[in-house]
Amino acid sequence: MPSKTPSKIPKKKPSKTPSKPPRKPRSKIPSKMPSKTPSKPPSKTPSKMPSKPPKKIPSKLPAKPPIKKKIKIPLKKPSFRKKLKKGQKYIVNGRVKQRGKIRTIRLKTTLNRALRYMIRLVDNTTARSFDLKIIGVSKVKDIKKPSLKKFRKKISKRGDVLTFVEKSRYAIDTIGEKKGLKISKVLKKTKKRKRNKSKR
Prior knowledge:
This protein is α+β, with helices and mostly antiparallel strands and 200 residues long. It is built from 5 helices and 5 strands. It has helices at residues 5-60, 66-72, 111-123, 175-179, 183-199; strands spanning 88-98, 101-110, 129-139, 151-155, 161-166. A 5-stranded antiparallel sheet has the order 2-1-3-5-4, with helices on one face.
């Protein structure tokens, strides 16, 4: 009996217990932990952040500027076809054709005053037509409308220009028309008179 018991017991216990536990924790922990943590975060953050903002921001900005154009549309253009409010009158400049070119006569007066001046100018020269173009609107008193017996009236498509053409009956009925007086000479004389008055 004393010979069998001490031989079997010490062989089985030391072989199983020390071999298995130290191998498993040392091999798995250091291999997997450093590989996963540093590799994934630097790859995802720098790739996605710079790519998305430059694509989305410039696409939305150029779509908004057409809103600014709508602010300028409501501005109304002046027209002889529209009626003005009480007390308001159109302010007008004269225009005459010379050698195929349009020359503006800066009158800056009301419609009836400009008509009276331009009718006298055209009726006493070889010119047959003149225009009145709207510059603006103001509250000013105007004179009575002069007679348009010798002229025909037309309105332009836009409505901001009135054209007056002398009728063929009255083409050569004044002294200036019979002499062949040109409108350019009359305008030069008026400029000289204005300069002399300003010097005085």
